[in-house]
Structures are given as C-alpha cells and as structure tokens.
Amino acid sequence: MAINLQVFADYCQIHVLDEGSETDLGEVWTEQALLDRLGVARDALVIGTEVNVHVAVSVDLLASEPDGDSTEFDHVVEASLHVPSGRLVVMGCTDYLPEAPRFEAPAGWIRVRASRGNLANAFRADIESDETPETTEQLRLQAWPAPPTDPQIIKRWSQPAA
C-alpha cells in the first residue's frame, strides 16, 4: 500500500536515505548524476526533480520487485540502497531530518525505483506547478529487498526546448 506525501523539492531534489546515514550528498552530484537525475551513495539517494516546489510523492515498500510500468511515466531510474537501520527516510534536501517521514524497510540492501511523471506540465508551470494536480510533478518510490546492483536508467526524459 502506497503512502502519499507532499515533499518540498528544494534545489530540485528529493533525498531517500537510511535513517542513520551521514553521507554528504553534495558529493554525489556529478555531471552524469545531473543528467540522470539520480545521485547514488551507499546509504543515500538523491532524486532530481524538474521543479523547486512541492512534489507529490508516493512511497510503496514491497516484498519483491514490481512489474515494469515505465510507459506510464516520463523518467524512471533504479538504484541500490543500504538500509542497515531498517528505517527509510524520504525528505526534501532542506527538510529537518528529525521530522522527516520514516518508513519501516527490511534491514540490509533494497532496490529503489523512482518513477517520475507529469514532468512537461510541471516544467511549464515552474514555480506555480504545485498549485493544481494537473501541473504537480509526481514521484513514485517503490522499494523492495534486493542484492546491490548498478544504478539503471530505465527511461530518460529531457526538458522541452525553450
């Protein structure tokens, strides 16, 4: 069952991390990570967004890998995440960590699929994109137990030309 949140994507990013992570996420923003909208560290991920406002986020912790449905989304990425605490945190990069939403997850390695949608509408509406559901960027996070593997870009979206 998915849990729905509104997360402020300050600096166009959402953080997904182990509750005990002390990773400096500033170090994951390589040129490739910016292109992929995915920064990866051992116990923390950064999902890039198109907007610098609230994003509709759903979090779904699963027992096994879900079926692929990338045709329903604009940009889909996957990465492995080590969650030794068994507590997964989802937050905007400037949110206050002690107050960020937490989710029980299997302790150890999980796979996280980040599927983003409604990107063109959100991009066009820019700072007003979170004012209506029709223009709000959507981010679905699915996580399941899995051994660590390399990050994968399943589907890539590019901003429309100006």
Defining traits:
162 residues; mainly beta; 11 strands; 5-stranded antiparallel β-sheet
Strand order of the largest sheet: 1-5-10-9-6-11
Put simply, the count of helices is: 2
Shape: globular
**Class computed from helices, strands and strand pairing:** mainly beta
The averaged pLDDT comes out at: 95
Largest sheet data: 6 strands, mixed
Task: Tell me the β content.
Answer: 35-45%
Radius of gyration: 15 Å
The count of β-strands is 11
Summarize the structure in words.
It is built from 2 helices and 11 strands. By secondary structure, the protein is mainly beta. The strands form 2 sheets. Strands 1-5-10-9-6-11 form a 6-stranded mixed sheet, with no helix packed on it. Strand 3 (38-41) and strand 4 form a beta hairpin. 36% of the residues are buried.
Map the helices and strands.
Layout: E1 3-8, E2 13-18, H1 31-36, E3 38-41, E4 44-48, E5 54-61, E6 75-83, E7 87-92, E8 102-104, E9 108-117, H2 119-125, E10 138-145, E11 152-155
Parallel strand pairs: 5-10
Antiparallel strand pairs: 1-5, 2-4, 2-7, 3-4, 6-9, 6-11, 7-8, 9-10
InterPro entries: ComJ_sf
